[in-house]
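User: Please predict the structure of the protein below. I'd like the answer in structure-token form so I can feed it into my own downstream comparison script.

Assistant: Understood. Taking the following sequence of 603 residues as input:
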Amino acid sequence: MVRVKRRARGSNGQQENRKRVKEVSSMFSECKDMAENIKQKLYWKKLSQELATKFFASIVSLASFDGEKLHYESTGVVVENSLRNTCILTSSALVSTSDPERRFIYRLKIKLRLPNNQVVDGWIQHYDLPFSMVVVVTGYSPDLRTVCFSNSLQVQRNTHLLALKRCFKSGKLMQTHGVPSDDPSKSDSKGSMLSTCKITMDGSGGPLVDLDGNIVGINDYHDQEGTPYVQGNKIDECLRVARIRDEVQRHCWQNFTSAFKRHWEGSSNENGYSGESESKNQKQFLSSNPEPQALEFTEDVPTPELIEDEHKRILLPWPSDGFTKMVNALLDKDGYPLPAYADGGMRLEGHFEEEFGRDNLSEPARKIALKMSRSVVALASFSHDFKKRHFACTGVCIDFDGSTSTTRVLTSASLVRTSGDENELFDNLKIRVCLPSNECIEGNLENFDFCYNVAIISFPFRCNRTAMLVDAPQTEVLALGRVFKTGNSMATEGSVISKECKIGCKELKISTCKITKAGIGGPLLDFKGNVVGMNFYDTEGTPYLPSKIILKVLRRFDNAERPVAAGMTEEPNSSWPVLKPYWHYPSESKIEPKVKVVHHILD
């Protein structure tokens, strides 16, 4: 019995020894895992610091405000930084509603915190980009660096990814780790890929990078499993199209063909279009030497003299291909007619982008123009969804209301009326105001008078220099204007002449200041900087409504019980014709004059 008990005790001892060995082995394994985790954390910390240093000057934080209330915070990356301005790509959630449709909210103010902790103002340049992205523009900053998106980067299943963001309040750069989703082909309903990086709302618009420092995509926050991101090749394509559109707008249709053709030829393979696939018709009328101030297509082949029927029979119809479809989309969005033919030297006449004031100003006129240009804004009216422009013109800031923090602009009622000879308000119009800083703000129609073609637009902005209207006879005058698309200011000087105006309103006077359609609604100044009238457009002299009449209209506005009710006047109706945009075909000058082809009333 004793021997058996000793054996039992020996067996228990061996079990205890084996247990201790397992415990020690487990402890060593845990220590090894801990050491590996610490090593991995140190590696990620070092790598994160390296990537953070690389992207430090390329990532900014953004915040949008509705008045003083914060609407949304996001992160953005610098995609362009030039002396003209700086462009930031971020999520559309910054300036849209919180529902799935993400409807654009124009009244929001945008602030950006730069890497040096400086807070600056920004404004939207492109909202209609695919994949819920927007481009925010701000002033040039030499400390910022642009990022590059690769159109050939392939992300493998086990690729380690780093999501970066910058906090708006602290300005700190933060990161989180992850990998692509288990199924590389998995994507959300909008075509975005998914990663396991867990980001917060203010990480929307931030870059997703791999360990080599390549930008894989841009993150977009959603309250769901996995974080969607837009792939870099898709972003690169969207930005390239946006740059084409910007260049077209900056040239104001003056160098449309040559500018577009450079992009077309340089990126035909990337777009899936081939230079060889361009139609012969297109090649015949494309040229890089358009006539200034017009959208023009030229050819070297002389146009024969034709009668009207031969003109329609011989001229090639406007082709339908990749090039012309994009041209048509741009024209339609700006409210311009589409071409009917492909005629050598064809050009668009009567558009809103033509500038005036190329002549040299006298020194007194130059000083007044420089001083008062800060009071001059450009305006444009659009359809309710902002997909099509109705009209564009100039306006002048006349007062600022501190109680409501709004500025009032005097401009032409052509901005909001259905046509030049009808006293009807265009339904559901949206108005945007382009400031001297190029920032665009949504405006509201406050009052209008169709008899004198006067309108007052208000918008939330503090104008530090408002213009003063005076009723005083003048001889030497100065006309100011601003182009909506580019924000360029314009000025030309002239004199008041005793000439009868052909427009129906008998109170109108005429000056020799030569303006374009972009100057409609702009101020006519004396050489003290006072507003003595508001300009309208005509091909023979520039009509203007004297300040004496404008002041009477403004007093009636101020005394009206309801804001828009002031637009209902009892005076006889007047017709205010505006030159209708049309295409000029050089072959028409060779046609025997049977039909007049220029239409002067906007319909």
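That's the full token string. Residues 251-313, 561-570, 590-603 have pLDDT under 50 and may be disordered.
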